[in-house]
Amino acid sequence: MAEGSLRYDVAIAGAGPAGATLAYLASRMARGIRIALVDFRRWDNLWGKPCGDAISHHTFPETGVEPPRGEEVRQLVKGILIYSPDERTVFRVDAESGYIIDRTKLGQRLVREAEDNGVDVYLEARVLSPIIEGGRVQGFAARLKDGSKVEFRAKVTVEATGGGMALKTRLPRSWPVAEPINPQDTNIAYREKLVLGEDVEEPHYIRIYINQEIAPGGYWWYFPEGIREVNSGLGVQGGKGYPSPMKIFREKLLGRRPELRRIVRVVEAGGAMVPTRRPADTLVGPGIIVLGDAAYTVNPVHGGGMSYSMRAARYAAEAVAKAWEDDDWSMEKLWMLNTAYMHRVGARQASLDLFRLFLQRLSDDDLNYGMAKGLMREKDIYETSISGELKMSVVEKVSRVIAGLGRPSLLIKLKVVADYMRRIRELYRRYPESPRGLEAWKAELRSLYTEYLENLR
User: Fold this and answer.
1) What is the DSSP string of 208-245?
2) Which of 11, 100, 297, 402 is the most exposed place for a label (fewest CB within 10 A)?
3) Distances in Å between the alpha carbon of 318 and those of 29, 114, 333?
4) pLDDT at 404
5) What is the pTM of this model?
6) Alpha-carbon gap, residue 330 to 340, rounded angstroms
7) What order do you get walking across the sheet with 186-196 strand by strand?
8) Contact criterion met (CB below 8 Å) for 366 and 413
9) What pLDDT does 395 receive?
10) Boundary-marking domain end, from 275, 298, 332
């Protein structure tokens, strides 16, 4: 079929949580802006990436997206139970409320409302490659549902295709926005949605199990989606040669909880790669914005990406609306996305990345000891996950020195981690206000990581 060319202000590749949120918000902030939203999935499989489907309540007021409602909610979450490897110690965190969502139904609502605001939506269309001319991205080529090849030309292109990074991997390697990911900064995840033969205990609490033997470098989860339905799976650290998570799930997890010994039906099964690190050094390049998993906007400790992706999309929408208003689509104008995300979210994300690197170096014995002795308590876990800050008062330090006399090296390392977490937050809060300061800032960041990893040995 003949090739064609379509022109837009913004062309978004990917209609997942990042892309759909951006289209929804930008079309509301900048009335009349021309936006194309392109995704390879069908309407009945929007946001179809396999994951735990959990999202915090505070995501929605922070992004300006209306909270999930009706059939978009699979389960209300009142708290989290965190289990030690031997499962003898359980931390109960009651402060973190949220939802287990029906990802497809929430995604459909955002895409439908974006379309109502004038966004052109192209589903079952495969993004092929970026169009690079004059030293910047000018759009991308895609194969539409009918087989025709079309160029989506735009003033700014958005890469939101997830871990596949259909556009990002084809950018010039010299561009900072093309920064690749180390496989060891990923988790390979697998999950199954199951109907059980008996009721789930405390269905409003999601459960996280830390166990290096079962889920090396990651964790396994058990998230109720009702009285007799559950989303359960695991993630293992990539780049280490560990067995496939599907194999581990079927050999070691099925039957581990009493309810998992009576499975009536497998509703859905699948896996995906999940980035688990600090954000990409820049979300902005010449003519391009990168969001979601392609920009590594995730919580490094548990791999949850929907909330971070939607926050980044909010800041991207503000940058796009300002660029459209001023008719200035330069990197300098769009850079406000970087400063907003890095200062408000990236600082916490990078801090949690250091915490993740520490946890991955602990043995199950260390984790059992630390949780049983209270080297970190429920309050610490919750506050660290929210703020990215590992707080320890003088009284707590003294009590933990006493509690940790049998293993002082573990306590010393925890103090080192807390110090570097503070330092990296400060560094991200000094993220450069323009592209000119990026290289110097990156050098300082890499130096801090090198020093930190040496101190963890």
Assistant:
1) EE--TTTSTTSEEEEEESSSSEEEEEEEEETTS-PPPH
2) 402
3) 7, 16, 11
4) 55
5) 0.93
6) 17
7) 90-93, 79-83, 205-209, 219-224, 229-237, 186-196, 263-275
8) no
9) 37
10) 275
